[in-house]
Write a sequence for this structure.
């Protein structure tokens, strides 16, 4: 209860500061919460943007596709490199170096290759989600005690049993953390890709509202997009908590 009260107090303080600062600025550029709330109501009532559900579902489908591809490729590459120490030592630093490169530099090439449709947004979301998942798998496998693996094999456990009973529980918390980070970055990648260049999706609506100086609608669209991001992160957080209880 105390944590909730602190959060509510912080939110109220931020809204009050926003209201004061926005009222003192240019109304075409700065919108106070008192003006953003009616715009949010009109948006949810489908008066300002009647096609909002279609754009929202498109963005959600792109996020699901990008994240599914990132998980599949990240787990496959991560386990492949982790189970082969030579490959892991050879390619692990390369993956870490590529992950350090600002991801936005890749988007123009993806847009030229895939076009302005959903494929480039999915590719960008996949790219952002792939690296943290792969690196989390590698880090988790390196954390598993080699003595536990040796003891399990000494008692006659096969490779599958060793992986399921020893390696997976030992690396699960790190793996789930990487999956959560990959999900957040996949969502961000899809939305940023839509903002940088798209014909549809939540990012394209944000760009449209901003370009026409419909600042109140712009803020309302950002709030809806933030709700999507927070919802995805909340689902990942529940999975992370269950993993923490299992490994405790």
């Amino acid at each position: 209860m105390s944590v909730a009260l602190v959060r509510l107090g912080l939110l109220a303080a931020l809204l009050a500061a926003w209201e004061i600062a926005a009222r003192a600025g240019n109304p075409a550029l700065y919108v106070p919460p008192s003006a953003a709330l009616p715009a949010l109501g009109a948006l949810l009532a489908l008066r300002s943007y009647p096609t909002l559900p279609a754009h929202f579902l498109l963005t959600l489908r792109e996020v699901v596709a990008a994240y599914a591809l990132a998980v599949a490729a990240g787990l496959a590459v991560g386990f492949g490199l982790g189970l082969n120490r030579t490959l892991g030592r050879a390619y692990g630093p390369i993956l870490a170096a590529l992950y350090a490169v600002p991801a936005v530099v890749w988007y123009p090439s993806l847009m030229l290759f895939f076009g302005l449709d959903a494929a480039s947004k999915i590719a960008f979301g996949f790219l952002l989600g792939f690296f943290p998942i792969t690196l989390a798998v590698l880090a988790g496998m390196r954390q598993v005690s080699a003595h536990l693996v040796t003891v399990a094999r000494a008692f006659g456990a096969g490779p599958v049993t060793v992986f399921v009973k020893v390696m997976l529980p030992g690396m699960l918390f790190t793996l789930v953390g990487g999956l959560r980070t990959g999900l957040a970055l996949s969502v961000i990648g899809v939305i940023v890709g839509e903002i940088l260049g798209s014909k549809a999706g939540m990012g394209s609506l944000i760009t449209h509202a901003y370009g026409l100086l419909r600042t109140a609608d712009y803020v309302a669209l950002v709030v809806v997009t933030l709700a999507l991001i927070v919802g995805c992160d909340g689902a990942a957080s529940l999975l992370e908590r269950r993993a923490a209880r299992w490994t405790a």
